[in-house]
Write a structure and sequence with these properties.
The protein is of the alpha/beta class. It has helices at residues 24-29, 43-59, 74-87, 98-111, 155-160, 163-174, 176-190, 196-211, 221-241, 250-261, 268-284, 290-299, 306-309, 313-322, 339-348; strands spanning 13-17, 36-41, 65-68, 89-96, 114-119, 131-136, 139-144, 150-154. The chain is built from 15 helices and 8 strands. The structure holds 1,4-dihydronicotinamide adenine dinucleotide, 1,3-dihydroxyacetonephosphate and zinc ion.
Protein backbone atom coordinates (compact mmCIF):
# COMPACT_ATOMS: atom_id res chain seq x y z
CA UNK A 1 0.00 0.00 0.00
CA UNK A 2 1.27 3.48 -0.89
CA UNK A 3 1.54 5.58 2.28
CA UNK A 4 3.99 8.36 1.51
CA UNK A 5 2.95 11.88 2.48
CA UNK A 6 4.64 15.23 2.32
CA UNK A 7 3.60 18.74 3.33
CA UNK A 8 5.81 21.45 1.85
CA UNK A 9 5.45 24.86 3.43
CA UNK A 10 6.64 27.79 1.37
CA UNK A 11 6.27 31.58 1.52
CA UNK A 12 3.42 33.05 -0.53
CA UNK A 13 5.17 36.30 -1.54
CA UNK A 14 8.88 36.50 -2.23
CA UNK A 15 9.58 40.11 -3.20
CA UNK A 16 13.19 40.77 -4.23
CA UNK A 17 14.77 43.81 -5.87
CA UNK A 18 15.68 47.46 -5.81
CA UNK A 19 13.58 49.50 -3.38
CA UNK A 20 11.09 46.74 -2.53
CA UNK A 21 11.20 47.70 1.16
CA UNK A 22 8.77 50.42 0.06
CA UNK A 23 6.32 47.67 -0.94
CA UNK A 24 6.14 46.13 2.52
CA UNK A 25 2.55 47.22 3.16
CA UNK A 26 1.48 45.95 -0.28
CA UNK A 27 3.15 42.56 0.27
CA UNK A 28 1.63 42.27 3.74
CA UNK A 29 -1.89 43.42 2.91
CA UNK A 30 -2.13 40.79 0.17
CA UNK A 31 -1.76 38.19 2.93
CA UNK A 32 -4.84 39.47 4.77
CA UNK A 33 -2.85 39.83 7.99
CA UNK A 34 -4.78 41.81 10.54
CA UNK A 35 -4.08 43.50 13.88
CA UNK A 36 -1.00 45.27 15.17
CA UNK A 37 2.30 44.62 13.42
CA UNK A 38 5.28 43.95 15.68
CA UNK A 39 8.62 44.78 14.06
CA UNK A 40 11.48 42.77 15.60
CA UNK A 41 15.04 43.76 14.78
CA UNK A 42 18.54 44.06 16.21
CA UNK A 43 20.28 47.43 16.66
CA UNK A 44 21.87 48.11 13.23
CA UNK A 45 19.09 46.53 11.14
CA UNK A 46 16.65 48.66 13.15
CA UNK A 47 18.50 51.78 11.99
CA UNK A 48 18.93 50.72 8.35
CA UNK A 49 15.47 49.26 7.72
CA UNK A 50 13.37 48.58 10.85
CA UNK A 51 12.56 52.26 11.42
CA UNK A 52 11.41 52.64 7.82
CA UNK A 53 9.15 49.61 8.08
CA UNK A 54 7.58 50.99 11.28
CA UNK A 55 7.10 54.42 9.64
CA UNK A 56 5.36 52.83 6.65
CA UNK A 57 2.86 51.07 8.92
CA UNK A 58 2.25 54.32 10.83
CA UNK A 59 1.64 56.22 7.59
CA UNK A 60 -0.91 53.61 6.54
CA UNK A 61 -2.84 53.88 9.82
CA UNK A 62 -1.66 50.65 11.43
CA UNK A 63 -0.57 50.83 15.07
CA UNK A 64 2.88 49.19 14.90
CA UNK A 65 5.06 48.27 17.87
CA UNK A 66 8.74 47.47 17.81
CA UNK A 67 11.29 45.54 19.84
CA UNK A 68 15.05 45.42 19.42
CA UNK A 69 16.82 42.23 20.49
CA UNK A 70 20.54 41.92 21.09
CA UNK A 71 21.29 38.20 20.91
CA UNK A 72 19.99 34.88 19.56
CA UNK A 73 18.76 32.83 22.50
CA UNK A 74 15.62 31.20 23.84
CA UNK A 75 15.41 34.13 26.31
CA UNK A 76 15.22 36.52 23.36
CA UNK A 77 12.48 34.39 21.77
CA UNK A 78 10.56 34.55 25.06
CA UNK A 79 10.99 38.34 25.31
CA UNK A 80 9.49 38.72 21.84
CA UNK A 81 6.62 36.36 22.73
CA UNK A 82 5.92 38.35 25.93
CA UNK A 83 6.04 41.68 24.15
CA UNK A 84 3.79 40.41 21.34
CA UNK A 85 1.27 39.15 23.92
CA UNK A 86 1.40 42.44 25.89
CA UNK A 87 0.59 44.53 22.85
CA UNK A 88 -1.78 41.93 21.37
CA UNK A 89 0.21 41.73 18.12
CA UNK A 90 -1.54 40.51 14.98
CA UNK A 91 1.60 39.54 13.05
CA UNK A 92 5.40 39.81 13.29
CA UNK A 93 8.08 41.11 10.96
CA UNK A 94 11.71 40.06 11.50
CA UNK A 95 14.09 42.73 10.18
CA UNK A 96 17.80 41.92 10.20
CA UNK A 97 20.43 39.23 9.86
CA UNK A 98 19.97 35.55 10.62
CA UNK A 99 19.62 35.95 14.34
CA UNK A 100 16.81 38.54 14.29
CA UNK A 101 14.98 36.55 11.62
CA UNK A 102 15.29 33.23 13.48
CA UNK A 103 14.11 34.77 16.77
CA UNK A 104 11.08 36.33 15.11
CA UNK A 105 10.29 33.15 13.17
CA UNK A 106 10.33 31.07 16.35
CA UNK A 107 8.30 33.59 18.38
CA UNK A 108 5.67 33.88 15.63
CA UNK A 109 5.48 30.10 15.38
CA UNK A 110 4.94 29.79 19.13
CA UNK A 111 2.23 32.47 19.08
CA UNK A 112 0.57 31.04 15.98
CA UNK A 113 0.91 34.42 14.27
CA UNK A 114 1.95 35.29 10.72
CA UNK A 115 5.63 36.07 10.12
CA UNK A 116 7.25 38.23 7.46
CA UNK A 117 10.99 38.04 6.81
CA UNK A 118 12.82 41.27 5.94
CA UNK A 119 16.54 40.46 5.58
CA UNK A 120 18.96 43.38 5.77
CA UNK A 121 21.93 41.21 4.82
CA UNK A 122 22.34 38.43 2.23
CA UNK A 123 24.30 36.51 4.83
CA UNK A 124 22.51 33.18 5.36
CA UNK A 125 19.82 30.98 3.86
CA UNK A 126 17.41 31.11 6.80
CA UNK A 127 15.63 34.12 5.25
CA UNK A 128 13.10 31.81 3.61
CA UNK A 129 13.41 28.53 5.49
CA UNK A 130 10.98 26.84 7.83
CA UNK A 131 13.72 26.34 10.41
CA UNK A 132 14.90 28.29 13.40
CA UNK A 133 18.41 27.78 14.72
CA UNK A 134 19.24 28.67 18.32
CA UNK A 135 22.10 27.60 20.59
CA UNK A 136 21.37 26.33 24.09
CA UNK A 137 24.08 25.11 26.44
CA UNK A 138 26.11 22.37 24.80
CA UNK A 139 23.76 21.88 21.93
CA UNK A 140 22.21 23.59 18.95
CA UNK A 141 18.53 23.41 18.16
CA UNK A 142 17.36 23.51 14.60
CA UNK A 143 13.65 23.58 15.15
CA UNK A 144 10.79 23.40 12.71
CA UNK A 145 8.87 26.65 12.51
CA UNK A 146 6.34 28.05 10.09
CA UNK A 147 8.27 29.62 7.21
CA UNK A 148 7.66 33.30 6.48
CA UNK A 149 4.42 34.16 4.72
CA UNK A 150 6.38 36.77 2.81
CA UNK A 151 10.01 37.67 2.23
CA UNK A 152 10.91 41.25 1.36
CA UNK A 153 14.54 41.45 0.27
CA UNK A 154 15.51 44.92 -0.86
CA UNK A 155 18.74 44.67 -2.87
CA UNK A 156 19.43 48.38 -2.24
CA UNK A 157 19.53 47.68 1.51
CA UNK A 158 21.44 44.41 1.08
CA UNK A 159 24.05 46.08 -1.15
CA UNK A 160 24.74 48.72 1.50
CA UNK A 161 25.41 46.11 4.18
CA UNK A 162 29.06 45.37 4.94
CA UNK A 163 30.48 43.28 2.07
CA UNK A 164 31.59 40.49 4.39
CA UNK A 165 27.92 39.71 5.10
CA UNK A 166 27.38 39.03 1.38
CA UNK A 167 30.46 36.82 1.10
CA UNK A 168 29.14 34.95 4.17
CA UNK A 169 25.88 34.30 2.29
CA UNK A 170 27.86 32.98 -0.68
CA UNK A 171 29.84 30.67 1.59
CA UNK A 172 26.64 29.39 3.24
CA UNK A 173 25.50 28.41 -0.29
CA UNK A 174 28.86 26.91 -1.33
CA UNK A 175 28.63 24.70 1.76
CA UNK A 176 25.55 23.05 0.20
CA UNK A 177 27.91 20.77 -1.75
CA UNK A 178 29.22 19.08 1.37
CA UNK A 179 25.85 19.25 3.15
CA UNK A 180 24.30 17.20 0.35
CA UNK A 181 27.22 14.74 0.38
CA UNK A 182 26.70 14.26 4.13
CA UNK A 183 22.99 13.78 3.63
CA UNK A 184 23.58 11.14 0.94
CA UNK A 185 26.09 9.41 3.19
CA UNK A 186 23.60 9.38 6.08
CA UNK A 187 21.02 7.96 3.71
CA UNK A 188 23.34 5.12 2.66
CA UNK A 189 24.69 4.33 6.11
CA UNK A 190 21.81 5.19 8.42
CA UNK A 191 18.77 5.01 6.16
CA UNK A 192 18.05 8.69 6.76
CA UNK A 193 15.31 9.83 4.38
CA UNK A 194 16.84 11.58 1.35
CA UNK A 195 14.87 13.79 -1.01
CA UNK A 196 16.26 13.73 -4.56
CA UNK A 197 14.46 16.99 -5.39
CA UNK A 198 15.75 18.86 -2.35
CA UNK A 199 19.28 17.47 -2.78
CA UNK A 200 19.39 18.35 -6.50
CA UNK A 201 18.00 21.85 -5.90
CA UNK A 202 20.51 22.54 -3.17
CA UNK A 203 23.43 21.32 -5.29
CA UNK A 204 22.26 23.23 -8.37
CA UNK A 205 21.96 26.39 -6.29
CA UNK A 206 25.60 26.07 -5.24
CA UNK A 207 26.67 25.37 -8.83
CA UNK A 208 24.83 28.42 -10.17
CA UNK A 209 26.35 30.65 -7.52
CA UNK A 210 29.87 29.38 -8.23
CA UNK A 211 29.31 29.92 -11.97
CA UNK A 212 28.26 33.52 -11.25
CA UNK A 213 31.30 34.24 -9.07
CA UNK A 214 32.69 36.76 -11.59
CA UNK A 215 29.57 38.92 -11.20
CA UNK A 216 29.67 38.89 -7.41
CA UNK A 217 31.66 42.01 -6.68
CA UNK A 218 31.67 44.57 -3.92
CA UNK A 219 29.73 47.71 -4.83
CA UNK A 220 27.49 45.98 -7.39
CA UNK A 221 23.83 45.73 -6.38
CA UNK A 222 23.58 42.92 -8.95
CA UNK A 223 25.68 40.83 -6.53
CA UNK A 224 23.02 41.06 -3.83
CA UNK A 225 20.43 40.04 -6.41
CA UNK A 226 22.40 36.93 -7.39
CA UNK A 227 23.15 35.94 -3.80
CA UNK A 228 19.67 36.51 -2.41
CA UNK A 229 18.11 34.44 -5.17
CA UNK A 230 20.48 31.61 -4.27
CA UNK A 231 19.55 31.99 -0.59
CA UNK A 232 15.86 31.79 -1.47
CA UNK A 233 16.48 28.69 -3.58
CA UNK A 234 18.43 27.03 -0.77
CA UNK A 235 15.68 27.89 1.71
CA UNK A 236 13.13 26.30 -0.62
CA UNK A 237 15.30 23.15 -0.70
CA UNK A 238 15.10 23.04 3.11
CA UNK A 239 11.32 23.48 2.92
CA UNK A 240 11.01 20.62 0.44
CA UNK A 241 13.15 18.40 2.66
CA UNK A 242 11.32 19.47 5.82
CA UNK A 243 14.75 19.76 7.46
CA UNK A 244 17.95 21.76 7.10
CA UNK A 245 19.73 18.65 5.74
CA UNK A 246 20.14 19.98 2.16
CA UNK A 247 22.05 22.99 3.48
CA UNK A 248 23.59 21.82 6.73
CA UNK A 249 26.04 18.94 7.17
CA UNK A 250 29.29 18.45 9.05
CA UNK A 251 30.57 21.90 8.02
CA UNK A 252 27.61 23.35 9.96
CA UNK A 253 28.29 21.14 12.99
CA UNK A 254 31.84 22.51 12.92
CA UNK A 255 30.53 26.10 12.77
CA UNK A 256 27.97 25.56 15.54
CA UNK A 257 30.74 24.16 17.71
CA UNK A 258 32.92 27.20 16.95
CA UNK A 259 29.99 29.40 18.05
CA UNK A 260 30.10 27.67 21.42
CA UNK A 261 33.87 27.83 21.78
CA UNK A 262 34.26 31.40 20.48
CA UNK A 263 30.90 33.15 21.00
CA UNK A 264 31.95 36.30 19.13
CA UNK A 265 33.90 34.44 16.47
CA UNK A 266 33.38 34.76 12.75
CA UNK A 267 30.19 34.98 10.68
CA UNK A 268 28.11 31.83 10.31
CA UNK A 269 28.63 31.67 6.53
CA UNK A 270 32.38 32.17 6.79
CA UNK A 271 32.73 29.42 9.39
CA UNK A 272 30.69 26.89 7.41
CA UNK A 273 32.71 27.77 4.30
CA UNK A 274 36.02 26.94 5.97
CA UNK A 275 34.39 23.85 7.47
CA UNK A 276 33.32 22.66 4.05
CA UNK A 277 36.90 22.76 2.71
CA UNK A 278 37.85 20.26 5.42
CA UNK A 279 34.75 18.08 5.21
CA UNK A 280 35.11 17.89 1.41
CA UNK A 281 38.63 16.58 2.08
CA UNK A 282 37.17 14.03 4.49
CA UNK A 283 34.70 12.89 1.85
CA UNK A 284 37.01 12.69 -1.13
CA UNK A 285 40.60 12.64 0.10
CA UNK A 286 43.68 14.61 -0.81
CA UNK A 287 43.07 14.46 -4.55
CA UNK A 288 39.38 15.23 -4.16
CA UNK A 289 37.38 18.40 -4.61
CA UNK A 290 38.41 20.30 -1.50
CA UNK A 291 40.50 22.63 -3.67
CA UNK A 292 37.38 23.47 -5.69
CA UNK A 293 35.59 24.43 -2.47
CA UNK A 294 38.56 26.52 -1.35
CA UNK A 295 38.93 28.21 -4.76
CA UNK A 296 35.21 28.99 -4.97
CA UNK A 297 35.35 30.64 -1.54
CA UNK A 298 38.53 32.54 -2.40
CA UNK A 299 36.99 33.75 -5.67
CA UNK A 300 34.25 35.61 -3.83
CA UNK A 301 36.60 36.81 -1.08
CA UNK A 302 35.39 34.55 1.74
CA UNK A 303 37.89 33.21 4.31
CA UNK A 304 39.61 29.90 3.60
CA UNK A 305 41.86 29.66 6.66
CA UNK A 306 41.60 29.75 10.45
CA UNK A 307 43.70 32.89 10.38
CA UNK A 308 41.26 34.65 8.07
CA UNK A 309 38.42 33.61 10.38
CA UNK A 310 40.34 35.13 13.28
CA UNK A 311 40.18 31.81 15.13
CA UNK A 312 43.25 30.04 16.49
CA UNK A 313 44.39 26.65 15.22
CA UNK A 314 43.76 24.83 18.53
CA UNK A 315 40.14 25.95 18.56
CA UNK A 316 39.66 24.73 14.99
CA UNK A 317 40.96 21.29 16.01
CA UNK A 318 38.80 21.23 19.13
CA UNK A 319 35.73 22.14 17.08
CA UNK A 320 36.51 19.46 14.48
CA UNK A 321 37.01 16.71 17.03
CA UNK A 322 33.87 17.54 19.03
CA UNK A 323 31.48 18.72 16.30
CA UNK A 324 29.78 15.32 15.98
CA UNK A 325 28.45 15.69 19.54
CA UNK A 326 26.48 18.83 18.96
CA UNK A 327 23.38 17.22 17.56
CA UNK A 328 22.02 13.94 16.35
CA UNK A 329 22.92 14.32 12.67
CA UNK A 330 25.02 11.67 11.00
CA UNK A 331 27.77 13.10 8.75
CA UNK A 332 31.21 12.26 7.45
CA UNK A 333 32.46 12.98 10.99
CA UNK A 334 30.83 9.70 12.05
CA UNK A 335 31.29 9.16 15.76
CA UNK A 336 34.14 11.64 15.91
CA UNK A 337 37.61 12.42 14.54
CA UNK A 338 40.81 11.73 16.39
CA UNK A 339 42.98 14.75 17.11
CA UNK A 340 45.69 13.46 14.77
CA UNK A 341 43.22 13.05 11.91
CA UNK A 342 41.78 16.52 12.55
CA UNK A 343 45.23 18.10 12.48
CA UNK A 344 46.00 16.22 9.26
CA UNK A 345 42.77 17.39 7.56
CA UNK A 346 43.21 21.00 8.66
CA UNK A 347 46.87 21.05 7.66
CA UNK A 348 46.56 19.36 4.26
CA UNK A 349 43.77 21.76 3.30
CA UNK A 350 45.77 24.77 4.50
CA UNK A 351 43.11 25.76 7.03
CA UNK A 352 45.74 25.81 9.79
N1 LIG B 1 17.07 29.19 10.21
C1 LIG B 1 17.91 28.83 9.27
O1 LIG B 1 17.57 28.05 8.38
C2 LIG B 1 19.28 29.42 9.26
C3 LIG B 1 19.72 30.12 10.34
N2 LIG B 1 20.96 30.69 10.34
C4 LIG B 1 21.38 31.39 11.53
O2 LIG B 1 21.57 32.76 11.23
C5 LIG B 1 22.59 33.27 12.08
C6 LIG B 1 23.65 33.93 11.24
O3 LIG B 1 23.11 35.01 10.57
P1 LIG B 1 24.03 36.27 10.25
O4 LIG B 1 23.18 37.18 9.42
O5 LIG B 1 25.33 35.82 9.72
O6 LIG B 1 24.35 36.88 11.69
P2 LIG B 1 23.68 38.05 12.53
O7 LIG B 1 22.21 38.00 12.50
O8 LIG B 1 24.36 38.04 13.84
O9 LIG B 1 24.15 39.34 11.71
C7 LIG B 1 25.51 39.66 11.63
C8 LIG B 1 25.72 41.14 11.93
O10 LIG B 1 25.34 41.90 10.79
C9 LIG B 1 24.62 43.04 11.20
N3 LIG B 1 23.81 43.51 10.07
C10 LIG B 1 22.74 42.92 9.48
N4 LIG B 1 22.31 43.67 8.45
C11 LIG B 1 23.11 44.77 8.39
C12 LIG B 1 23.16 45.90 7.54
N5 LIG B 1 22.31 46.06 6.54
N6 LIG B 1 24.12 46.83 7.78
C13 LIG B 1 25.01 46.69 8.79
N7 LIG B 1 25.02 45.62 9.62
C14 LIG B 1 24.06 44.68 9.41
C15 LIG B 1 23.83 42.53 12.39
O11 LIG B 1 23.39 43.60 13.18
C16 LIG B 1 24.88 41.67 13.09
O12 LIG B 1 25.68 42.45 13.91
C17 LIG B 1 23.15 32.10 12.86
O13 LIG B 1 22.57 32.10 14.15
C18 LIG B 1 22.70 30.91 12.05
O14 LIG B 1 22.57 29.75 12.80
C19 LIG B 1 21.78 30.61 9.25
C20 LIG B 1 21.37 29.91 8.14
C21 LIG B 1 20.10 29.25 8.06
O1 LIG C 1 22.47 27.26 8.63
C1 LIG C 1 21.63 26.53 8.18
C2 LIG C 1 21.57 26.20 6.74
O2 LIG C 1 22.45 26.99 5.99
C3 LIG C 1 20.63 25.92 9.08
O3 LIG C 1 21.20 24.82 9.55
P1 LIG C 1 21.12 24.27 11.05
O4 LIG C 1 19.94 23.38 11.03
O5 LIG C 1 22.41 23.55 11.17
O6 LIG C 1 21.03 25.43 11.98
ZN1 LIG D 1 24.03 27.91 7.19
Amino acid sequence: MFEKRTWIRLPRNVVVGHGVLGQTIEAVSELHLTGRPLVVSSPTPHDVAGKRVVAQFEDEGYDPSEIVIEEASFDAVQRVIDHASDIDAGFLLGVGGGKAIDITKMAADDLGLGFVSVPTAASHDGIVSGRGSVPEGDTRHSVAAEPPLAVIADTEVLAEAPWRLTTAGCADIISNYTAVRDWQLAHRLKNVHYSEYAGALSQMTAEMLVESADSIKQGLEESSWIVVKALVSSGVAMSIAGSSRPASGAEHLFSHQLDRLVPDGALHGHQVGVGSIMTEYLHSGQKGKWKDARDALAAIGAPTTADELGIDDETVIEALTTAHQIRDRYTVLGDGMSEEAAIEAATVTGVI
